[in-house]
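If it is no trouble, might I ask you for a protein's amino acid sequence along with its backbone structure tokens?
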Amino acid sequence: MFNLHNAQFDYEPYPICVIPEVLDPLLYQEMAESYPSKNLFNFSRNIGVKYSLSEINNQEKYNQFLRQNPCWHRFYETVKSRKFVEQIAGFLKENHIDLKLDGFKYAPSLKYRRRGPIRRALNTQVIRSRFEFSAMPAEGGGIRPHTDAPTKLATLVMSFVREGEWDEGAWGGGTSVVAPKDRSRIYNYHNRFMEFDETEVLKTYPFTPNQCLLFIKTYNSWHSVLPMTGPATALRKTLTINIENII
């Protein structure tokens, strides 16, 4: 389902790659046109200005949406699987990024917790993949600079806007790799947030249709979405997939 052949990697200051045309165009069009409506989402200002629909936020409506939309349900089943994690881990390893996921145990449920002296003694990694719809208003939406939680290994952010629906040049919406202006604060493994004016932008990956941005969690994986300047009626619509090591 994922076309990873066109990936373009950057390795500094941390590994990140942009994957254009990541889905079959017809599948992408079907998914973009059936993306969940705004009234299903929870609004949050915790890390910026965004709407979220996930296993944690509005779980009942999230599950109902997946049941009622076959293409999204098939995609969900693909992402919430060991095979998906193996595909992404193998792809990264081929590009010199080894997450050391040989022999991991896959946990499909958020309720799973690592238990038992044998598993602890063997140091078996317990991995899950999370699947979250995220939308930001084009008028003032954004995500403050951060490095992601320590449990995350890799994040994939997939765009789901239709052709002509988003004016990236005028409104913004790209994901920016940033660094603290005070370099003594660059180490941030435990994910403290900073304000936009405390960081400088090193590179911005434009927000374009049918694109996936994949990046690795590190001590310095600072990134943000700068406040956008579009109309109140427009939404920056994405799917965020996290591959996590359950602690």
The longest strand covers residues 126-137. The CA atoms of residues 21 and 210 lie 5 Å apart. The two ends are 29 Å apart (CA to CA). The first helix runs from residue 25 to 33.
